[in-house]
Amino acid sequence: xxxxxxxxxxxxxxxxxxxxxxxxxxxxxxxxxxxxxxxxxxxxxxxxxxxxxxxxxxxxxxxxxxxxxxxxxxxxxxxxxxxxxxxxxxxxxxxxxxxxxxxxxxxxxxxxxxxxxxxxxxxxxxxxxxxx
Length: 132
Known about the structure:
Elements: E1 28-63, E2 70-72, E3 75-84, E4 90-125
Antiparallel strand pairs: 1-4, 2-3, 3-4
């Protein structure tokens, strides 16, 4: 080196290195419990009920031939025929059976049991963890 040149030299003598490690440690436990509760609750529903009403209507007149069953609104009419022996055979309408369909609705209330669950979480410290 010459006197006019200044040169700086650096020598490495110590170097530190950092290392990171992870480990698992239990710090406590968690317990989950479920509890069911029952209570009575009213429920409502619309119910339909059909009934049949049978009415026998005497007619008593002679007809030319069989009369087919027919529908008159909600009423089904079934003709009952009888053969009557005379000099000639003729059909006599004896009666009509009328079956009427009626529908009634009503509200129904009943009590049913319903259940509900809830979860309770409890944390318990580990025996390895010091209490502070």
